[in-house]
Specification:
Length: about 160
């Protein structure tokens, strides 16, 4: 049974719908509200904005910022920039995938972690770097990454 409350989405649509380029703004605000774009809400957006569902889905799937599944409490971003790549970011990603039991782009079953790669975090002097939510962790080794994940799992950070 789908228990998603639609009231927040309806308020966003009513507030934004008559503005130029409203669809993207509506999608952004809905994702901010729900943490992702639930299918039920995408259908609602199409109906309320009088857009074909195909246009709403095409718009949402074109932009990488939009998610169709809930993300974890902690989003781990692994930098893939040149400095991080040269410094061993791929080893960090391998360890994270192994420790979390998920692949890049996935969320753990307990919804604690989501694992992503990014082109650059802008922390080149700290390479290799990961960011968990808004905190950067630099000069990492595989052992340091394992400790960080263990700390998050045990509530010692975050």
């Amino acid at each position: 049974m789908d228990t998603i409350d639609t009231q927040a989405a309806i308020a966003i649509i009513e507030r934004e719908n008559d503005k130029q380029g409203a669809l993207i703004s509506i999608l952004q605000q809905v994702q901010e509200e729900y943490g992702y774009l639930p299918e039920k809400i995408l259908h609602l957006i199409a109906r309320r904005t009088q857009n074909p569902e195909s246009k709403v889905m095409a718009t949402a799937s074109f932009y990488s910022q939009f998610r169709f599944e809930p993300s974890g409490r902690f989003t781990i971003k692994v930098c893939q920039g040149t400095a991080c790549h040269i410094s061993g970011a791929s080893k960090l990603l391998d360890v994270l995938e192994e420790e979390l039991g998920i692949a890049e782009g996935e969320t753990t079953k307990d919804r604690l972690f989501t694992l992503e790669t990014v082109a650059c975090l802008g922390c080149c002097s700290l390479a290799p770097v990961i960011m968990i939510n808004e905190t950067a962790y630099g000069r990492l080794t595989t052992n340091k990454v394992k400790k960080i994940i263990n700390d998050f799992r045990n509530g010692r950070t975050g």
